[in-house]
Amino acid sequence: MARDRLLGYSQDLYVENARSASRAEAELFHEPGYLDLVKRFSATGAGLLDGGDTPAFRGCYEASLSVVGATLRAVELLLEGKYAHAASFAGGLHHASRGSASGFCIMNDCAVALALLRKLFSKVAYVDLDAHHGDGVMYGFYSDPGVVCVDVHQDGKTLFPGTGSHLEAGSGEAKGTKLNIPLPPGSADDVFVSLFSELAVPFLEEAKPEFIIVQCGADGLKGDPLAGLSFTQHGYLKVIEMVHEISHRICGGRLVLVGGGGYNPEAAAECWAGEYMVLSGRAPMCASNPSTSLPSVMRKAESVRSAIRESHPSFSG
Fold first, then answer.
1. Which domain range does residue 237 map to?
2. What total number of domains does the chain contain?
3. Are the CB atoms for 279 and 85 separated by under 8 Å?
4. Which of 55, 152, 162, 295 has its CA 20 to 30 A from that of 139?
């Protein structure tokens, strides 16, 4: 659906054939024993890959490798210099950990791509805009100072997976390289854009990553059946615009978008298509006005802003 919208927006869009990832590529992040389990359950089409959210289905091993391969191909196209930017909206499966599935995610394409990029660059960045905290990526690289993470999400006290406190900033040598921005339920475009501008933008500029991957979960849109945020497409497009500008200032424009959550399919497809058009400088007109937060939500968001500035090593000194 996102592809069809993009083709309607622009004649300059190139749709490339994806590829499947190899087992060796999946093992850049995932444990061999876990991949063996997925392959075994995939053959029978039965069994749970986690505590209950992620049932196996026949062919799930091959399907997951296809998603990982598509994201890797998007990364490769930039490394080859073929395009300035690329997107793999089937990707964004950010909950899967090194050794287990979680939250509908079997293999973590974002993490595999980051692991590949870490072999080529000393510092890469992962920006997660999904309403749910990207725990699989965050904790998968929690002690790696070469993976800078910015994760904007609904407060984990109110939403799966229950993680992503502003106090979680990385461990060991990586302390200060992870930035969680947990938003109160009801947060609208004004909160989303202002906190990203005031916290995430200077954080990324200071880090100076050499490649950026953005997880574009669209379940922060108002009315999404699984989350409680109140963003519109305006908010998402503004944030992508900021990241796009950073990518050209810092890392030669090396920027890949992947998908993620979004449980109103029409709204998610429209949002993803619009976000990708931002990278071309031709963002579409939004059908609705930017959303504003209630005063009570604004007060809670201000508390989050203050807490991060007081506690995070990048802001507190």
1. 2-13+84-316
2. 1
3. yes
4. 55
Residue 112 sits in a domain whose CATH number is 3.40.800.20
Quick check: is 61 in a domain? no
Give the C-alpha distances (Å, rounded to integers) separating 9 from 2, 65, 68, 88, 282.
Answer: 11, 30, 27, 17, 9
- Residue carrying structure tokens 């394409």: 109
> pLDDT per residue over 278-297, tens digit each?
998 887 778 789 999 999 99
List, in order, residues 6 or more apart from 131 with CB less than 8 Å away: 153, 154, 159, 217, 219, 220, 224, 226, 227, 228, 229, 261
End-to-end distance of the chain based on CA atoms, in angstroms? Answer: 46
**How many CB atoms are located within 10 Å of the residue 288 CB?**
9
At position 4, the amino acid (one-letter code) is D
Model pLDDT for residues 191-223, shown as the tens digit of each residue: 999 999 999 999 999 999 999 999 999 999 999
Question: Does residue 25 lie in a domain region?
Answer: no
Q: What pLDDT is recorded for position 288? A: 80
- pLDDT tens by residue, 29-73: 999 999 999 999 999 999 999 988 899 999 999 999 999 999 999
pTM of the predicted protein model: 0.97
In a domain, 229, yes or no: yes
Nearest-angstrom CA–CA distance, 33 and 94: 20
Q: Is residue 67 part of a domain?
A: no
User: What are the distances in angstroms from CA 226 to CA 49, 144, 223?
Assistant: 21, 31, 9
Exactly one of 94, 95, 166, 312 is catalytic; name it: 95
- pLDDT digits 0-9 by tens, 23-33: 999 999 999 99
User: Crossing angle for the helix pair 60-79 and 32-44, nearest 10 degrees?
Assistant: 130
132 flagged as catalytic: no
